[in-house]
Amino acid sequence: MSNGAGKIPWIETPLIKSASLSELVGCNVLLKLENLQPSGSFKSRGIGNFIVQRLAAARAAAGDPALVAHFYSSSAGNAGLACVHAAVTLGCRATVVVPMSTTPFMIAKLRQAGAEDVIQRGASWQEANAYLTETVMEEARRKGEAAVYVPPFDAPEIWDGHAHISRELARQIRGVTRHYPITTASPPSHNGNGVNGNGLNGEGHSTANGEAVIDKIDAVVCSVGGGGLFCGIMQGLDETGMSATRVVAVETIGADALTHSLAAGELVTLPAITSLATSLGARRVCEKAFDYARRETVSTAVLSDAEAIRACRRFADEEHILVELACGVCPAVCYNGMLQKLVPGLTKESVVVIVVCGGSNISFDIMEKYAASHLDGS
């Protein structure tokens, strides 16, 4: 087994224009394709960065650059898959403890990704996590293993990994006009070299070799579960000088811990997750996400499972991309007309980026079962 030196368990993802969404909304709508990450979702970034950092620290502490650590996750979904993929890529081991409710579909995916073991225990994530940390990992440490717990979303290393999305956007956005027809504003005045007095060509666009270059993003749309992705996007926007960009954080009814917390003015723990969008199923968001969400530049939206299902089906039809409900809520705010209310002042020159976070707990069969049970035959 390779020690994984120099490997990075995530990739830079494409930023593409959606012609259908752009026409529907009336502005430039771009898609950041996190569904193309090695594990099938954005989790490859945050979990991958966490594992890279913790592995380096463990090897340094042991004085052994070839130390094989054993990473442990209690996520039955995309975080678990990201943990397994990152660990195996870096020449390490991974074990996942999942609740009894986990589908054979996801268990098979975890094993296929290279998990050393997938253990089912408990009726909920809380019970599975307790068994992992109090029993499985303690036993592993008694055997002398370098056992490392991998949280699903609440860790600075995870947020920093997800911040790469915004860092990439800051660079990629300037090259979009080379590959897609982008509506840009005409410069109101020039100083003789094709650039107006503040260095911008119209509303946030500059020129390079006579071609318009997009310099700003008006809004980023992302889904929120525990808040790791949201935290990373906000962190990255701050780092790249784009803190004025509006961020739209989307949840589903029954997995809307952030919205409940904002309404209460304090962190709220949901009694249960009742949404089908189980990848958004954190009963409580991390404190950092709650802090970011109170900024004036953040808007939130809560959609029904039915809206998410319809959006996923339409997104698959029009963009040829199949995603989980947790991801489908993002294009849903375009399909249902909410985006214009969430981002006031959109014009045809505005630029909106939808983070297509992906997710592996979906198939055409699963989607049709959702539709049959929740769309009244529509």
Automatic annotation (TrEMBL):
- Indicate the principal place this protein occupies in or around the cell: cytoplasm
Describe which pathway this protein belongs to, using the record's wording: Carbohydrate biosynthesis; gluconeogenesis
Kindly give the InterPro entries that the UniProt entry links to this protein.
Ser/Thr_Dehydratase, Ser/Thr_deHydtase_PyrdxlP-BS, TrpB-like_PALP, TrpB-like_PALP_sf
Q: Does the keyword Lyase apply?
A: yes
Gene Ontology CC, one term: cytoplasm
Give the GO terms filed under biological process for this record.
gluconeogenesis; isoleucine biosynthetic process; L-serine catabolic process; L-threonine catabolic process
Cofactor(s) needed, names only, are: pyridoxal 5'-phosphate
List the signal peptide residues. none
Q: Where is the Tryptophan synthase beta chain-like PALP domain?
A: 12-179, 198-358
Q: What is this protein called?
A: L-serine ammonia-lyase
**Top-level enzyme category:** lyase
- Which residues does the annotated region (Disordered) include? 182-203
